[in-house]
Amino acid sequence: MSEKKSLPERLKKNLTKRAMKYLSTPEGMKKFQQLLESKKRADRFLGAIYGLAGLPNLADKQQVEWAVDRQAKRLRDLSGQVEKVENLLKRLEGLLDEAPAKAPVPAPEPVVAPPPPPPVVEAPVVEAPVVERPVVKKPIDKPRVAKAPAKPKPAAKVPEKKAVAPKKTAKKAAPAKPKPKPAKRPKPLGAVPQKTLLSGSKSLLDLNFKKKK
């Protein structure tokens, strides 16, 4: 047992010696100072967080004791409130046991819902038959062959105009002289008007009468 205990003690001594030698060097001192500064920063950061959360800083023992006392008082107050609630529940249970048992109220009859109306069947929609129109293929245009140029037609002969003799103008006839009107012959004496005479008769005094045609 003494040998087993001596091994960790020896290791501790060797480690402490090496640590002291390392810290005595300037590099060891710089690293040790950096560790102390980082610890201070961490403590400040944790203190700020505890202050925001309303918790005491663990580094300050007085604040920790005050926080513990406050929590103990809150727990005592809560335990008293729980006891009061338990007493009230017990009183309620006793009152329920002393109350007379009431006759059970019959449950209301279930209301039968009316049957749903029959579904409306829609008439099937008959689609008109699609008539396929025959596809008329257009005739393929044959390649047009260039026609040979038409031969020039011979120039038409212009007929020579014949000399036309001047027409003789007919002399206008002299205007006819008006014929003198015959003088009226005087009526013979003793002439009787034709209305009073017999038909086809003339005056006896008129010797120059004409025969009937």
Written account of the structure:
With 213 residues, the chain is an all-alpha fold. Among the domains are: 57 residues, no CATH class; 38 residues. Helices cover 42% and strands 0% of the residues. The chain has three helices and no strands. The model has no long low-confidence stretch (mean pLDDT 72).
What is the share of helical residues? 40-55%
Tally of contiguous helical segments: 3
Number of strands: 0
Distance between the termini: 209 Å
The 3D shape can be described as elongated
Could you describe the largest sheet, including whether it forms a barrel? none
**Spans with pLDDT under 50 lasting ≥5 residues?**
none
- The helix/strand class is mainly alpha
Strand content: under 5%
Q: Which H/E pattern describes the elements?
A: HHH
User: Radius of gyration in whole Å, from Cα?
Assistant: 81 Å
Mean pLDDT across the residues is: 72
